[in-house]
Design brief:
This is G-protein coupled receptors family 1 profile domain-containing protein. It is elongated and about 65 Å long. The chain has one domain. It contains three helices and no strands. The N and C termini lie far apart (41 Å). It is mostly helical.
Length: 98
Amino acid sequence: MVEEAPHPFPTVDVPDHAHYTIGAVIGAVGITGLVGNFLVIYAFSRSRTLRTPANMFIINLAITDFLMCLTQTPIFFTTSMHKRWIFGEKGTVSLQKI
């Protein structure tokens, strides 16, 4: 029997179906967030009547949430599907800066 090389990042003994379930939920929430926030941004940019001071707060939240979904969903989905952190030390440092 061949032993696997130890991963440089610690892993937790979690059943495979849990990783795939979490990955599917992260993917669904991320895609829903991208589409929903895009629609809010699109409606705001097309309709001048929506450009009120109160709605500026909403559009700010929509933009930041859109960017979070865009940058974080692929990373966490991929990590969950591989059942471990695959982006190495550089990925860890890069995510700390986001």
